[in-house]
Design brief:
The complex is a heterodimer of chains A (about 350) and B (about 400). In chain A, about 35% of the residues lie in helices and about 20% in strands. Chain A is α/β, with parallel strands linked by helices. The chains are: A alpha/beta (about 350), B alpha/beta (about 400).
């Protein structure tokens, strides 16, 4: 049994430093309407719905339950939720379509980082007994990784600055940081503010469809040729931070190495992490990396990975790519990684 | 298009207690996973992927704990998914794992759900104040009591029915070595004399707060053929959700629950659930939800559920046993509670339920719900594989 499944529509909000005047539902609803309008589908036409978000960002338990109201889940819908980036919600939806239980799926994700200190919040992801009580924050952990890369001779500070500058030289109107953005002072050596992602709020949504349904609804579907995700150990001391074996394995299982890709949308919140990912994925200069600006231009937690898949798919929809790789990450120092390979029909 | 049949070949759970101070969160989940692997006579290397679920992260104060638990669950180098669908999550987690097998993405999947409620206070974990939103009225009991009251008013059920359920479930728990509450001196009079908490819900008609984990090994037809003990076969499984708050919602018998059950019965070829299903493990955190769900799931006509309970049909030796394990009323590690229902259904059809085994149980329903009665997940398992 095998079914062809494609990303057929993509929508996202502007990514903003603060959305204090909006609830999560208010942030999400225009995006849901947008993605449905692009296909003409209504909520009741969707076979399966899956979302990704995180209670800790929202500051309340069961935060996703009210977002469901925005979907308009009446009559009742077949629906699920991952407490992860929306890229993994897309993975769950993809398996649901593969099994034949549904022909279409709506995937959405959102996150508001602005209400709290996201650096502090992310420390709660760490081992709760031995590491979290020390409050090592996400920037400090990324700086450890960056220093390991520099010590290994894999990069240097000027090279990191170039990654930052290229990422923000994007014409993506949804991006939070665009144009000439100074590299700034050190946040945690060797990372400068320019090496770190902006903190932002945002939402994204994607519609998947199987086989002929995808062709009916989209002129050039972005077929998911493979998708896989892998996790690594949590303890930073037992990992080689200059490498990402989980990304390499996920890419291999997703078929990324079978033929070259022309585009890669990488979820690398820190410049140094792009270095790690390029190496793990074997990307050379012939591949266009992060034309959207990537997470360095806009990093709405829990949606940023799904947006990478959406950006890769959009380029296929527009005929700007024939075979694209999309990547999402989760956890400290690239602990968990997902790779999807998307293709358009031959032209 | 045919799906791969899904078999449960390993089940493990911890002894559920108020506080497992002897183990970390990682130690707790590993204990259940290890028991499920032992039951299936498999090793960590035989597992292709891990699907884990739990209720809100605020219950333990760890954000996305699956990241930290990757090592403890042998997931390093494997795919690991984290499901969260409120109280129904244990069931949803099993269904997401089952779909990986059904879609032939993976052959053998470990699925696990847990809660270590002693790490914090669940009532306040649910009651973080959010501006401009309805507070949860100090825990779940305050939210659900008015719906119980509505059920009583709608059906004319006498106010003695709830205590019958609690008395039955607590006696059933005495036969389940993993159950949290083992009240050896339980009597109906003691249940009825317990303090009123949220009228009409009495103290003894509510669930405890537990630490615990439950795990299952799910596999394909080939995996089931190699299994050392009988498999439970998934005959149907579904999830349904509806909005939290809207004028058309029937909080007593939500449409999403009816639709979810109907989808499961359609997949499993169940024409008359009362006749075709041998036993039910349903999510009953407050005793009155047994008669309510009997109606919602189609085992009784509307307004008649309490009569089944009152007549003894749902007793362990009754015609339709409900919550043979002692149920959520006896054991409630919230995030795991749904998976325990699913696992108990599987134990029954495998003939592995020990003292609380129902003789001749061949088709058993596992049921979970969550949120404001808005998320439902269910599966029906059988002792025979589905028709090819």
């Amino acid at each position: 049994m095998s079914r062809d499944i494609a990303v057929i529509a993509v929508a996202q909000s502007d990514i903003l430093r603060s959305t204090a005047e909006q609830s999560e539902v208010e942030m999400l609803m225009p995006v849901l309407h947008d993605v449905l309008d692009r296909t003409g589908l209504k909520t009741a036409d969707i076979g399966f719905t899956c979302s990704g978000s995180c209670d800790y960002l929202a500051g309340r338990a069961f935060s996703f339950t009210l977002a469901l109201d925005g979907v308009g889940a009446w009559p009742p819908i077949s629906e699920s939720h991952v407490e992860m980036d929306g890229a993994w919600a897309l993975y769950e939806a993809w398996t649901k379509l593969l099994s034949g239980d549904a022909d279409t799926a709506l995937v959405y994700a959102y996150g508001k980082s602005s209400p709290g200190s996201v650096r502090d919040v992310l420390t709660r992801q760490l081992d709760p007994y031995y590491v979290a009580p020390l409050w090592p924050d996400s920037v400090a952990l990324a700086a450890l990784q960056a220093q390991a890369l520099i010590d290994a001779g894999d990069t240097d500070e000027p090279a990191l600055a170039e990654i930052a500058a290229r990422s923000r030289a994007t014409d993506n109107p949804r991006a939070q940081l665009r144009g000439s953005v100074p590299q700034g002072a050190y946040a945690v050596r060797p990372l400068r503010t320019g090496d770190c992602p902006p903190i932002g709020d945002g939402a994204a949504a994607v519609i998947l469809a199987a086989g002929e349904r995808a062709r009916e609804l989209c002129p050039r579907p972005a077929w998911i040729r493979g998708i896989d995700h892998r996790i690594e150990a949590h303890g930073l001391g037992v990992r080689d931070l200059t490498d990402s074996p989980s990304t390499r394995l996920a890419a291999e299982k997703a078929g990324a190495f079978e033929r070259p890709v022309d585009t890669a949308e990488l979820h690398a919140p820190f410049t140094s992490q792009e270095v790690v990912l390029r190496k793990a994925l074997g990307l050379d200069d012939s591949v266009r990396v992060n034309p959207s600006g990537g997470a360095l231009a806009a990093n709405p937690m829990m949606a940023a990975g799904l947006i990478r898949i959406g950006e890769a798919a959009s380029r296929i929809h527009r005929g700007e790519s024939d075979r694209a790789l999309a990547h999402a990450t989760s956890g400290p120092c690239l602990q968990q990684n997902l790779v999807a390979v998307l293709e358009g029909d031959p032209r | 298009m045919s799906k791969e049949p899904v078999a449960v070949v390993g089940i493990g759970q911890t002894k559920h207690v108020a506080a497992r101070r002897d183990v970390s969160i990682a130690g707790l989940v590993r204990e259940a996973a290890r028991r499920a692997l032992d039951d299936a006579e498999l090793t960590w290397a035989d597992i292709d992927a891990v699907v884990i679920g739990k209720a809100p992260d605020f219950f333990e104060g760890v954000m996305m704990p699956e990241l930290y638990l990757a090592d403890a669950l042998g997931a390093v180098g494997k795919p690991m998914l984290r499901v969260h669908t409120a109280g129904s999550v244990g069931g949803s987690t099993a269904l997401v794992a089952a779909n990986l097998v059904a879609a032939r993405v993976h052959a053998t999947v470990l699925t696990l759900a847990f809660e270590k409620q002693s790490e914090s206070n669940a009532m306040w974990g649910l009651s973080l104040p959010i501006p401009f939103q309805q507070p949860l009225l100090a825990g779940a009991g305050g939210f659900f009591a008015p719906h119980v009251r509505a059920y009583m008013r709608r059906t004319g059920a006498p106010d003695t029915v709830g205590s019958l359920v609690a008395y039955k479930d607590r006696r059933n728990a005495l036969k389940n070595p993993y159950a949290h509450l083992h009240e050896h001196d339980i009597t109906l009079e003691k249940v009825q004399a317990s303090p009123m908490l949220w009228d009409p819900i009495r103290y003894s008609e509510t669930c405890p707060s537990s630490d615990g984990a439950c795990a299952m090994v799910l596999t394909d037809r080939a995996g089931a053929a190699r299994a050392p003990r009988p498999a439970a076969w998934m005959l149907g499984g579904a999830m349904r959700s509806e909005p939290t708050l809207f004028a058309g919602k029937d909080a007593v018998s939500p449409q999403a629950g009816k639709d979810c059950a109907a989808d499961v019965y359609r997949q499993a070829g169940i024409a008359d659930p009362r006749r075709d299903i041998d036993a039910v493990e349903m999510y009953v955190p407050f005793s009155w939800y047994e008669p309510m769900w009997l109606e919602n799931l189609g085992f009784a006509d509307e307004g008649e559920g309490w009569k089944l309970t009152e007549s003894g049909v749902t007793e362990l030796d009754g015609d339709l046993p409900v919550n043979m394990s002692g149920g959520v009323l006896s054991t409630n590690p919230i995030g795991a509670s749904g998976m325990i229902r699913f696992a108990e259904a599987a134990l029954q059809v495998r003939g592995q339920a020990g003292e609380h085994q129902v003789d001749g149980a061949r088709k058993v329903l596992g049921h979970a719900y969550g949120g404001g009665s808005q998320f439902f997940s269910m599966w029906l398992v059988g002792s025979e594989p589905p028709d090819a």
